[in-house]
Design brief:
This protein has 124 residues and is mostly helical.
Amino acid sequence: MFRLKNSDSQWFKAWTSVLNVNYENYEEWQEKYGRQSNPEAYADWIFVATIYNNIGLLLHQKQVDPDILFKQYTPASIIRIWRKYEKVVDARREVSNTELWKYFEYLYDESTKREPNLTMPEDY
């Protein structure tokens, strides 16, 4: 079973790093945070996206109780990261893998059902 450890310092550091990026488009993201230009920021993104993708897979397969899951990983935190990186995911899907982060997107969709009126400030 996948361990849900939101309190782990590595998770918090990576999540915060991922949330604090600023870019206008995929090309700018690549220049500032891509694998070649900023390996640490890229690793944080892959870490967070992989955790969310794995959690989304477990949720999709009904291997985790949604009520428990969304107490551990709040819908707002999932929504914030997905919206921040949706341009990156879409761009990557266009050039390589249309299924990329499929279950992260599923987790996002389920989160929006729990927080349908959530709005994000411009500086998130």
